[in-house]
Amino acid sequence: MTTAIEMAPAPGARRPLNGIPPQPRPPVRENEPSRRPRLRRLLPTPTGTPFTFTYALVLIGTSLFMEFADPHTVSAALRASSTDVTHLAQSPVLVLGASALWIAGGITSPFGIAFVVVLTALERRAGGLRTAGVFLLGHVLATLATEVPVGLSVMVGHLPDTSLHRLDYGISFGVAASVGALAGLLTRWPRRLVLGGFAAMLVEDLIAFTDPMTSWGHLLALAIGVASWPLLRRRHLLLSGRSGAPERSSRSARRSATTA
Predict the structure, then answer these.
(1) pTM for this structure?
(2) Which of 45, 118, 177, 231 could cross-link 221 (Cys pair, CB 3.0–4.6 Å)?
């Protein structure tokens, strides 16, 4: 007669449950990056987003200057940087660049916060050169589109001569264009939320009629950003490795093989 000997399981071994053999455990992946969005990716870095990071440092410096410098000195600097009709007629390139060095309301204003978040996200998706191009295009075109009608209205007598020296500076036009551009790189519902929410805020400012020329400029800058979608989307697909060409070629190869 044979006696069955039950072997004791080795230490750490899993016992079978009701005759079911133990299932292998999934391999543990060490140092696997988390899929949750990291807070640090929302902020600019010197290597990841050099354009936004450098520009943000400049804006922080000018904002501190506005906060702590002598008020008369600050007022003179803002007047010299204003993109009014007179300055645009005298030195357009210089004044367009100088006006983009200031934030109306300081770094903690809504457009200051939007600058950091929006341009960081846009640069990570489209690259620094295209981000700078969208920002500059929105800043320049929206500024000209709002100031040239002022000059023409003064010429025909619809506005007083003091309108030629209207104080106008800041980054808001560039930020509005960047919001429009970034929306084109998002999926459907985030795109609708960003565009709808931002456009509703701009329309509300326009209805308030506190500064209609600037409000129209923001809407125009947003449209400029939307117009840049085709170029930015091609660049975004190339950066993410989803150009679509390999997929189309593989489909063609499968169809050829099936036909053969």
Answers:
(1) 0.78
(2) 177
